[in-house]
C-alpha cells in the first residue's frame, strides 16, 4: 500500500472555490453569507468550512440562532480587507501577515476563536514588533487574555526600560502595568533612575507640569503625586540606592512616611554593618516576607548578551550561592566589546577575586565556570587552588539539563584554576577554557578529570569526554563574558 498527498493542489482548489464565488455557475455551492458593515462588501461561504475552522461559527450554527436561520451574518468590527484575508485562510490555509494587518487579524481571531491565527499573529508581532506599538499590544494582550504575548511585552519593556521611558507612550501605562514591570527582578537601569521615572509618571497622571521641580511643588501637588504612586512605590528596590541617592530622597519628602521610617531604620543598622550583621539579616528576612513589597530585595542587573532567560540567570545565582557577589558583580570583559585577546583579558580580569566566566561556543552552546579566587598574577604556567570552583552547562549538544559540575570528591583542588599569561581563562588541565592568545578558539579536554560529569557520562579518555560542551574538543568562541566586582 502506498499513500499519496497533494496538499498544495487541495489548498489552491479551495482557494479558487472561494475567490470565484461571483461566477454564476458556482453560486449554488455557497450556503452562508458574511457581510462587512464597513462598506457592505459581501462574502459567500460554506457553513461546513466556517464551522471546521472556527469554534465561534461552530457554536453559532449549532445553536441555530437568527444568523443560522437567515444564512447571513453582518460584522461591524472588521475591515473588508482583513475579513477577506481571514476567509481566504479558512479555505487555503495561507495568509499574508504584515505590520499593517497583524493586530487587526489578531483582534478578529481572538474574538471569533481562531486559535491558529492567534498563534501565528502573536509570533509575528513578537518577531517584528515596533517599540511605538508595544503599549497598545500590551493592553490588547491583557484584554484578550493572550498571556504569552502579554509576558513578551512585559519582558521587552523590562529589558529595554532605559530606551522605553524616553518615549511619550510610557505615560500611557496604567498602575497595574507598572506594578508588573517593576516586579521583574531584572531591569538594566539604575534603581534611582527607575524611581525618578515613577515620579514623572505620577506627575503626568496628576496633570502636573513635568518642568516644575519637585521642591517647588505645592503641598497639595505633592500629595497628589504620592497618592498616584502609592501602590507602585513598594516595587522600587531602595536597597539598590547609593547612600547619597537615598539621603536625597528622604530629604525631599518624596515617599510615604511608612516607607521612610523603614529606610531610616535600615540606614541606622548599616552605619555599623559588622556590629549589626545579625540585626540586618533579621530585618531583611522580615521585610522580604511581604510579597507585595520589594523595597529591600535587590534587582538582578545581569548584563549578559549570552544568557537572557531569567530561569538560567536564577540557576547561576543559585549555583554561586553568594547573594552579595551576584548583586554587585559587573560585566568586566566582553570579547565582542574588548577584543578576542588573551593579553587584554588578563589586563582586565586578573586579581579580581571571585570571577564568573561564560562562553558561547559553536553558535549555540552556553557553558562556563566560576572561581572564588580568580586568576592571580604571579609565576606563569601554574595551577591555583580553589575548592569552590565549578563548571556549568546551560545549553549543550546532548540536551542534558542545566547543571553545575563541582570539583570531584577526593580530587585535589590545587588543579582547579590554571594561570598562563598567554592564555585566556582556563579551568583544571584545560578541562574547559581558552588556551590560546587568540580568544576566538576554545578547548575542552579531560573534562571529567578534575570536575564531575553529567549523569550517564563517564570519564575514560580525552576523546570520549571532551565533546560534552560543544560537540567538539576544539571550538569557536562566539562570545566570552567575564564578571567580577
Automatic annotation (TrEMBL):
> Which keywords has UniProt assigned to this entry?
Kelch repeat, Repeat
CDD domains for the chain: BACK, BTB_POZ_ZBTB_KLHL-like
Organism expressing this protein natively: Anaeramoeba ignava (Anaerobic marine amoeba)
Q: Please state what the protein is called.
A: Pep-cterm sorting domain-containing protein
Q: Which SUPFAM superfamilies match?
A: POZ domain
Give the TLDc domain ranges.
306-485
Keyword Coiled coil found: no
Which Pfam family, any one, appears in the UniProt record?
TLD
* Domain BTB residues, every copy: 30-99
Amino acid at each position: 500500500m502506498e499513500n499519496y498527498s497533494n496538499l498544495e493542489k487541495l489548498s489552491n482548489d479551495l482557494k479558487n472555490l472561494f475567490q470565484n464565488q461571483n461566477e454564476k455557475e458556482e453560486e449554488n455551492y455557497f450556503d452562508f453569507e458574511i457581510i462587512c458593515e464597513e462598506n457592505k462588501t459581501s462574502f459567500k461561504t460554506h457553513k461546513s468550512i466556517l464551522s471546521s475552522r472556527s469554534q465561534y461559527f461552530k457554536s453559532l450554527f449549532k445553536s441555530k440562532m437568527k444568523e443560522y436561520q437567515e444564512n447571513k451574518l453582518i460584522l461591524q468590527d472588521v475591515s473588508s480587507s482583513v475579513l477577506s484575508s481571514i476567509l481566504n485562510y479558512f479555505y487555503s490555509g495561507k495568509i499574508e501577515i504584515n505590520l499593517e494587518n497583524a493586530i487587526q487579524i489578531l483582534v478578529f481571531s481572538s474574538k471569533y476563536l481562531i486559535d491558529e491565527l492567534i498563534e501565528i499573529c502573536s509570533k509575528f508581532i513578537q518577531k517584528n514588533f515596533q517599540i511605538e506599538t508595544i503599549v497598545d499590544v500590551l493592553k490588547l494582550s491583557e484584554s484578550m487574555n493572550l498571556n504569552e504575548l502579554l509576558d513578551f511585552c512585559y519582558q521587552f519593556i523590562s529589558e529595554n526600560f532605559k530606551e522605553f521611558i524616553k518615549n511619550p507612550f510610557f505615560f500611557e501605562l496604567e498602575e497595574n502595568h507598572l506594578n508588573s514591570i517593576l516586579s521583574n527582578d531584572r531591569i538594566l537601569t539604575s534603581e534611582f533612575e527607575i524611581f525618578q521615572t515613577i515620579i514623572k509618571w505620577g506627575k503626568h497622571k496628576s496633570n502636573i507640569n513635568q518642568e516644575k521641580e519637585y521642591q517647588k511643588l505645592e503641598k497639595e501637588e505633592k500629595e497628589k503625586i504620592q497618592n498616584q504612586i502609592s501602590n507602585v512605590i513598594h516595587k522600587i528596590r531602595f536597597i539598590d540606592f547609593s547612600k547619597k541617592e537615598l539621603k536625597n530622597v528622604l530629604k525631599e519628602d518624596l515617599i510615604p512616611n511608612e516607607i521612610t521610617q523603614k529606610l531610616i531604620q535600615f540606614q541606622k543598622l548599616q552605619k555599623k554593618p559588622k556590629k549589626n550583621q545579625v540585626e540586618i539579616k533579621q530585618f531583611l528576612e522580615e521585610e522580604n516576607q511581604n510579597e507585595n513589597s520589594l523595597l529591600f530585595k535587590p534587582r538582578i542587573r545581569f548584563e549578559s548578551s549570552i544568557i537572557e532567560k531569567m530561569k538560567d540567570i536564577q540557576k547561576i545565582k543559585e549555583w554561586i550561592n553568594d547573594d552579595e557577589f551576584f548583586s554587585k558583580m559587573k560585566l568586566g570583559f566582553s570579547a565582542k566589546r574588548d577584543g578576542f585577546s588573551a593579553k587584554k583579558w588578563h589586563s582586565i580580569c586578573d586579581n579580581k577575586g571571585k570571577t564568573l566566566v561564560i562562553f558561547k561556543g559553536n553558535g549555540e552552546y552556553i557553558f562556563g565556570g566560576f572561581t572564588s579566587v580568580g586568576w592571580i598574577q604571579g609565576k606563569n604556567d601554574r595551577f591555583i587552588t580553589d575548592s569552590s570552583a565549578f563548571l556549568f552547562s546551560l545549553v549543550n549538544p546532548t540536551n542534558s539539563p542545566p547543571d553545575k559540575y563541582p570539583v570531584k570528591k577526593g580530587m585535589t583542588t590545587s588543579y582547579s584554576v590554571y594561570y598562563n599569561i598567554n592564555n585566556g581563562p582556563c579551568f583544571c588541565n584545560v578541562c574547559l577554557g581558552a588556551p590560546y592568545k587568540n580568544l576566538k578558539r576554545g578547548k575542552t579536554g579531560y573534562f571529567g578529570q578534575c570536575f564531575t560529569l553529567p549523569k550517564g557520562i563517564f570519564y575514560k579518555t580525552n576523546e570520549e569526554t571532551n565533546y560534552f560542551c560543544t560537540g567538539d574538543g576544539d571550538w569557536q568562541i562566539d562570545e566570552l563574558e567575564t564578571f567580577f566586582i
